Amino acid sequence: MDQFWQLIVLVSKLLWAKAAAGYFALGVLAEAVFQNFWVQFVTAVVVGMIVVKLIEFSIRYYYYHNFVHRKLKNSLGAPADLDLFFQTTMKRDISRGLLPNLRFLRSFFLQMRRTELRLLHTYLRTNIRTLKSGKPIGYSVGVLIGLFTSFAMDILTINNLSFSQETTMKTVLLVVVWFIIVHLWMNKRIRSFSQLDGIVLACLNEKLTDPFDPEEDHDVDLLFEEKMMKEHS
Description:
79% helix
């Protein structure tokens, strides 16, 4: 029995030595790999995007929590308000294709009153204008994130701030990458709002010309339709 336990201890020590040697080798390899600038660059960008996503998730969770508990009396200025609206009024399902999804949205919007569609149209147009006018601020934030990433990677140091050819190129590369990320994100939001606004307008125009939907004064509807056509022409 003692020999059996000695054999177990010996095998355990051999396995531990193998694991320690493998761990040490992996540690040396990881250290050597992370000394490469491009590996550090990709890691910093990925970590930065994760941090930004976590901040965005925290903000959305705040609005979701307050929305569920009815603590927000007027949240039209909230960035997550539109998502809240669609998550609470439409059940998200697996995409069945472009045309089936458009038919579903059409049937959903046609159930709304004209006034509700107009309010939704105004809200979407306001978000589009806000994003377009806020592009300079977004680009400035992207530049600041790029500079902060450069400081975090010790490319630039606060105590000894100096610009050589290498530090300048690396910092400019980080700034340009974050500038492009912000640009793509803002354009994606604008495109989503614009596509949704187009569907809302199409459904509203369909309701305006529907003789079986005499909800409001037709003259007022025609004036509103003419105003919308001028706005989007």
